[in-house]
Amino acid sequence: MSLHDALAAASSFDPKGLAPLMLHGHVLGWVGPSVAAQVRRWPEVFACRPDAIVLALAAPQALSDALGAIARTLADEGLIRGWRNERYTIFSPASGTPVFALERAAMRAFGLPARAAQLNGYVRVRGGWRMWIARRSHSKPIYPRMLDNLVGGGIAEGMDARGTLVKECAEEAGIPPALAAAAAAVGKLRVRQVESEGVHDETLDCFDLELPEDFRPFNQDGEVAEFMLVTPGELVRRLAAGEFTVDAGVVAIDFLARRECLRSDSMLERGIEALRVRS
């Protein structure tokens, strides 16, 4: 694997074989054959056409309640793994208004777009910088034991990117709120790919935070196995070896690009530019 492969994987979405999930004439997500076959059991919620699956309910609360109950049933039957008891908000692609909320674990099964906050935590040293990275716990339902950014977490219903970041900083790395609030927002990246659980579609709100040289992260929520402080060279080596999750990988590559560490590779710079979300 290479850094080019990591960027290619992050934008490898192909809708072939998937059914668009639609509401009010707009595509919200993408559903694979196994889930598409199951949702036919609920014709009052899903109108299944040859070319699409259309959500038959319009009221946000009614849709949230119905989809929540269906997701719970599919989870009990083993089609959805890693139930979190945490909901994400789905927004209309036309108006940007909320249309329903759904259990986090069901997002990929329905190919729905999620949002997350990701933090590059770094330390200045003589002649450059070092980055703190984290190894995910073996018990994580997705990407167990893989490498991650120092802090990252999905943006739950009722939360925004910065509020999520401050919360996750405390839980995942013991970063106090006053220090976490100093993180600089540096843009958004979108990752889209088909995985075994469904479609992974996530917009990443990226932040950089310079940490004190004597700072040592400590995990409080059991989701991190270990932390490592790595040089730019080791960061590149681990990225190229495929040790990072897709999300964390593109966020770290973006950091390298913004630090002008990739100036000699125009293809990498173009690859990360292709993932940027323009406001």
Summarize the structure.
This protein is α+β, with helices and mostly antiparallel strands. The protein contains eight helices and 13 strands. Helix content is 29%, strand content 32%.
Description:
The strands form three sheets. Strands 7, 8, 9, 10, 11, 12 and 13 form a seven-stranded mixed β-sheet that branches. A four-stranded mixed β-sheet has the order 2-1-4-3. It has a two-stranded antiparallel ribbon with strand order 5-6. It has two domains: 3-11 and 114-275, Nucleoside Triphosphate Pyrophosphohydrolase, CATH 3.90.79; 19-110, Transcription Regulator spoIIAA. The model has no long low-confidence stretch (mean pLDDT 94). Helix 1 (3-10) crosses helix 7 (246-258) and helix 1 runs parallel beside helix 8 (266-275). It is 29% helix and 32% strand. The chain has eight helices and 13 strands. A hairpin with a 2-residue loop joins strand 7 (113-125) and strand 8. By secondary structure, it is α+β, with helices and mostly antiparallel strands.
CATH fold node name of the largest domain:
Nucleoside Triphosphate Pyrophosphohydrolase
| Count of folded domains | 2
Low-confidence stretches: none
- Basic shape: globular
What is the CATH superfamily classification of the largest domain? Nucleoside Triphosphate Pyrophosphohydrolase
Helix percentage: 25-40%
**Taking Cα atoms only, what radius of gyration do you get, to the nearest Å?**
19 Å
Give the termini separation.
Answer: 31 Å
Strand percentage lies at 25-35%
CATH architecture of the largest domain: Alpha-Beta Complex
Q: Look at the structure and give the mean pLDDT.
A: 94
User: Structural class, from helix and strand content?
Assistant: alpha+beta
SS field, number of helical segments: 8
CATH class of the largest domain: Alpha Beta
The count of strands amounts to: 13
Would you list the SSEs in sequence order as H and E?
HEEHEEHEEEEEEHHEEEHHH
User: Sheet with the most strands?
Assistant: 7 strands, mixed
